[in-house]
Amino acid sequence: MPNAGSAIIEIGDILVSSEVVTEFFCCDYPVCKGACCIIGDSGAPLLEEEASRLEEEYDNYKDYMSAEGRERIAQTGFFEIDVDGDMVTPLLRGGEECAYTRFEDGNCLCAVERAHCDGRCRFVKPISCRLYPIRVSTFRNGTRALNLHRWDICRCAFEKGRREGVRVYEFLREPLIAAFGEDFYNALESAARIVI
Question: Which residue has the higher pLDDT, 2 or 180?
Fold first, then answer.
């Protein structure tokens, strides 16, 4: 049973910031144009198994990538280790743009996700990308914490979510289920009814 009486919602060994259920969010792609894939200090965080999936599926999505992106993968491999020691997607152009991006009509898209949507690739994209603006931290004892990340480039998404009445956890239903299971999501929904 989730404990929803404080700023932290506890579901099993997962601690969820109450902002995940109280705040509003809905990507406003026509406004941001995929800026989260081309702005940042580091690539997208990767799980070890995701680096393997990126390598296994490469032939299925590489044609969706830019020539520069394919060249970067040839140079660095399918991931890099950032200054914090975390496994992340490789970056291009002075360390901002993700190597797995593609551009269409001035809009930035994920090449892997685009291939997935076209039925060419089984891997969707890294779960850290799918879960944004939730960031997941893992403690030494295995407990995971889900916190809301606020980034100025996503201000339009918070505003759109508020206008449309879409909460963070509602917008991220599918990736939350993919990452933590349906029972977790159902418990989070129950907690949201108490918290909101």
Answer: 180
Which tokens is 46 given?
């990767």
CA distance 69 to 63: 10
In whole angstroms, what is the distance from residue 113 CA to residue 98 CA? 13
Domain boundary among 70, 100, 124: 124
**Residue 56, pLDDT score:** 97
Q: Which of 64, 96, 124 is where one domain is finished?
A: 124
Taking alpha carbons only, the member of 40, 60, 67, 44 closest to residue 114 is: 60
Residue 15 contacts residue 8 (beta carbons within 8 Å): yes
Bridge partner residues of 177 (DSSP): none
Per-residue model confidence as pLDDT tens digits over 59-85? 999 999 999 999 999 999 999 999 889
pLDDT at 41: 79
Q: Rounded to the nearest 10 degrees, how much is the dihedral formed by the CA atoms of 143, 148, 150, 155?
A: 150
Structural domain containing residue 118? 33-124
Q: Is 77 helix (H, G, I), strand (E, B) or coil?
A: coil
pLDDT of residue 47 exceeding 60? yes
As for how many domains the chain has, the answer is 2
Report the C-alpha gap between 108 and 33 in whole angstroms. 6
